[in-house]
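[step 3/7] inverse_fold.run input=structure_tokens len=340
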């Protein structure tokens, strides 16, 4: 991770971050925020505090965030202030409330010990630092989170865009996807069916990529395994890296496997999904497809990004996005990389 060497304007030894809860997609979206926070305060003890439920940071993303978070508190008893016999809240130097609700922010400001308090809720009304009064509100959630770091630190830390992956994982990924080819990834899954581009559209697009002498790479999680036989038969040139169990040495899927695969791809086509944010974490070039959800708020942040919305073709349904439009976007992105 590369960072600016200047020290933050506010030196904090203990930092608390208040959140509601995180499922996999939320946790991945917030990774740039966590990396910026750690870059600004590399030696601080960072506490992640959930107030509504569990967090993926103690589950599937535990290893990913281990260098970024020192302690996770899931709905601790001291949230509303320590009572007799309860554990007291840690003495935070900096408290960042990411929840976006002014009543919750007011409660946290009153009850949790801190020296500086930052909360975007109600246009930063309850914050010790805030942006200029008439500055436009940032549309993407990750931009709003990063703004809290900038306000507290006094500058925006620079971090490498690609989340590091272990050499062991990269070695395994390269056994599956050796260098010397152009790999176009396809992630047909999504947490909700209304966010999925039709499987037949992914299949048609992959066949077009084969004609361009590119290798289709399908990223299929457990929820997409019903597509495996169909795609395997229809596109014999395709690679299914998460199903290369003999290389990974396990049938258990992990986030690190997808991150390593993302490092090997030249580009990927994704729905609005957790996988898209896993690939974004390693700065994989993306063509992101959106229908009923907001691309302005949720589109992954990568160096090379193309967003295609169903609304541009007459409605919210993902099926309205034509294969030809996505094919053109993929070709354009590959050409911009100096490849064919």
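[step 3/7] decode complete -> sequence:
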């Amino acid at each position: 991770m590369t960072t600016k060497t200047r020290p933050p304007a506010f030196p904090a030894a203990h930092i608390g971050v208040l959140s509601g809860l995180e499922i996999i997609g939320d946790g991945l979206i917030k990774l740039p925020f966590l990396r910026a926070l750690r870059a600004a305060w590399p030696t601080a003890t960072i506490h992640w505090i959930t107030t509504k439920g569990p967090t993926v940071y103690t589950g599937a993303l535990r290893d990913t965030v281990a260098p970024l978070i020192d302690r996770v508190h899931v709905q601790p008893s001291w949230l509303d202030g320590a009572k007799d016999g309860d554990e007291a809240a840690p003495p935070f130097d900096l408290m960042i409330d990411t929840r976006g609700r002014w009543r919750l922010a007011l409660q946290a400001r009153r009850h949790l010990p801190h020296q500086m308090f930052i909360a975007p809720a109600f246009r930063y009304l309850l914050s010790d630092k805030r942006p200029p009064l008439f500055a436009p509100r940032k549309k993407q959630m990750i931009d709003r989170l990063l703004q809290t770091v900038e306000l507290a630190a006094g500058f925006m830390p620079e971090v490498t865009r690609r989340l590091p992956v272990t050499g062991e994982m990269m070695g395994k990924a390269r056994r599956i996807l050796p260098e010397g080819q152009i790999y176009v990834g396809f992630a047909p899954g999504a947490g909700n069916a209304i966010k999925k581009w039709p499987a037949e559209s992914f299949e048609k697009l992959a066949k077009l990529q084969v004609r361009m002498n590119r290798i289709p790479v399908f990223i299929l999680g457990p929820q997409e395994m019903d597509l495996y036989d169909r795609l395997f038969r229809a596109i014999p040139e395709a690679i299914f890296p998460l199903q290369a169990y003999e290389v990974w040495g396990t049938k258990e899927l992990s986030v690190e496997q997808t991150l390593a695969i993302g490092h090997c791809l030249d580009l990927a086509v994704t729905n609005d999904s957790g996988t898209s944010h896993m690939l974004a974490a390693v700065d994989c070039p993306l063509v992101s497809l959106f229908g009923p959800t907001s691309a302005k708020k949720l589109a992954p942040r990568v160096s090379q990004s193309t967003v295609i919305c169903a609304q541009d073709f007459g409605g919210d349904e993902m099926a309205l996005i034509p294969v030809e439009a996505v094919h053109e976007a993929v070709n354009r992105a590959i050409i911009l990389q100096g490849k064919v």
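[step 4/7] annotate
The beta strands are 14-19, 45-50, 71-74, 94-97, 116-118, 183-187, 215-218, 267-270, 286-290, 305-309.
The radius of gyration is 21 Å.
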